[in-house]
Design brief:
The chain is α+β, with helices and mostly antiparallel strands. Helix content is 17%, strand content 44%. It has two domains: 184 residues, no CATH class; 147 residues, Porin, CATH 2.40.160.
């Protein structure tokens, strides 16, 4: 008797709609031709956000998601046998900033699958049923339960059968056309209906990239007066898709001019324009460096501060950032007990740290 009860209870857990585990139907996800994306991170974040498992199998109840890259744009395609339609969305992830690009793409793919399943809850008995083999009742009900659980805010209902959402960009496109999913009714393989309507949403706010790095630096006068070596820490931040700023503290020492021992402690600030190219960020602008120079000439330090030109680039690999920076300026420094120190100086810095 108890064995029969356990068997019936196990069957109920497997086949009952919306099991206690609340797992979404399985999804097959592929990332192709996207060197800047971490495929494993995309799959892990997608699975966690949607509450599903990633499968390598295909079947009548397995939703297929393909992520490809075409130039600077990421293209998401969903072939959903449960709602019997396909969806497509393309967008430029760089418009969100370079931070967490894999996470942005994974969440966008999860939202596109939810948009496909949403019609199962909002329109369970369409007047024009889609063609193709019908999915299992358990898969349909499980997908509906996922949509209901995520209905705060409610997932947007997909377009009715044989409706297409515009995804235009470039000359002639209207505001809001870009970044929108294209919904195609699943009639027969390769059948794409004509005509369509437009849906508009607010554009996303770009993400902010912040970084903290440890810096190794050198500073040298072009007149051959000597070179100082040292390092410090730097904090940088990109804002508004155009402007970048950074601040640092450096301590450098060495032989300089007529001094056998010189130590230079400085604070610096940059304000630059920047541009992103794949995993690289390039910056150019100006700033100010001010500091205190102490030498073997006497106990009295020399205080100095001059404007400078700056340029840098950052390579980002997930949370790891590698910075290369250069500075150049002119200094006119009077050091008590010795001759003046004046001329053009240049500095180079290598920084390794993390994106915050």
């Amino acid at each position: 008797m108890w064995r029969a009860f356990v068997s019936l209870f196990g069957a109920a857990l497997v086949f009952a709609p919306g099991t206690a585990l609340g797992a979404a139907p399985p999804v097959h996800l592929e990332v192709e031709g996207c060197p800047t994306l971490d495929a494993r991170s995309v799959q892990r974040i997608f699975s966690a956000d949607l509450g599903t498992s990633i499968t390598t199998d295909a079947g009548p109840d397995v939703t297929e998601v393909t992520i490809t890259c075409e130039g600077e744009r990421v293209v998401l395609r969903v072939r959903d046998p449960i709602s019997r339609k396909t969806l497509k969305r393309s967008f430029d992830p760089k418009s969100f900033g370079t931070q967490a690009e894999s996470r942005i793409v994974a969440i966008a793919a999860s939202e596109l699958v939810l948009a496909s399943w949403a019609e199962l809850a909002s329109n369970p008995t369409p007047q024009v049923p889609p063609e193709g083999p019908a999915p299992s009742a358990a898969a349909v009900e499980t997908a509906r339960s996922v949509v209901r659980a995520r209905s705060a805010p409610a997932a947007p209902a997909a377009a009715p059968a044989r409706t297409q959402v515009s995804n235009r960009s470039g000359p002639g496109a209207e505001p809001g056309d870009n970044e929108q999913p294209e919904v195609v009714a699943w009639t027969t393989a390769g059948d794409k209906p004509a005509g369509g309507t437009k849906r508009r949403t607010n554009q996303p706010i770009p993400l902010v990239m912040e970084r903290m790095t440890g810096v190794v630096s050198f500073r040298s006068f072009l007149t051959g007066a000597g070179t100082l070596w040292g390092g410090g820490v730097r904090f940088g931040r990109e804002r508004s898709g155009v402007v970048s700023w950074a601040a640092d503290a450096l301590l450098e020492s060495g032989v300089l001019h007529e001094y056998k021992s010189a130590t230079n402690a400085t604070l610096g600030g940059w304000l630059c324009f920047y541009a992103n190219l794949s995993a690289f960020t390039f910056r150019g602008g100006g700033g100010l460096r001010a500091g205190v120079l102490t030498t073997d000439a006497g106990p009295k330090p020399a205080i100095w501060g001059w404007p400078m030109l700056v340029a840098s680039q950052t390579l980002r690999i997930e949370s790891l950032v590698i910075d290369l920076g250069v500075e150049a300026g002119y200094v006119n420094l009077l050091v008590t007990g010795k001759s003046d120190l004046r001329g053009i100086w240049a500095s180079g810095q290598l920084g390794i740290g993390i994106a915050l």
